[in-house]
Design goal:
With 114 residues, this protein is of the alpha+beta class. It has one domain: Beta Barrel (Lipocalin), CATH 2.40.128. Helix content is 21%, strand content 45%. The chain is built from 2 helices and 8 strands. Strands 1-2-3-4-5-6-7-8 form an 8-stranded antiparallel β-barrel. The relative contact order is 0.15.
């Protein structure tokens, strides 16, 4: 019995998608727990906190690494010399050359749907 080519191709495509399904590793799951998406001047900025670092991904695709320093009075404080990230919990402020801009709507990271 011959199958129509479109049915066979559909079955192959489905099998390929199932085989390529990605299950997150423990490291990836842990990274998501320490990652937040915020609005900075109306643009989405993603921040991942790691041991001693905060890594930012801006809406333009720029990657910025900030290094943890002492935060008087508690909270968090990270800098790279020209940028500084301060705050407590999801209440964060980015300071660039002395100008402070509050990060709005900081929420635990959820990937955007394609």
């Amino acid at each position: 019995m011959r199958h129509k080519p479109s049915l066979c191709l559909g079955a192959i495509a489905l099998a390929t998608l199932v085989a390529c399904e990605h299950k997150p590793t423990k490291e990836e799951e842990e990274a998501v727990k320490n990652t937040f998406a915020c609005q900075l001047a109306g643009q989405r900025t993603v921040i991942r906190f790691e041991s001693g670092e905060a890594r930012m991904l801006t809406s333009t695709g720029e990657k910025i690494t900030l290094y943890q320093i002492a935060a008087p009075g508690g909270g968090v404080r990270y800098t790279n010399g020209s940028l500084e990230l301060r705050g407590r919990g999801q209440d964060l402020t980015l300071i660039e050359y002395g100008v402070a801009t509050k990060l709005d709507d900081c929420q635990p990271y959820a990937p955007t749907k394609p």
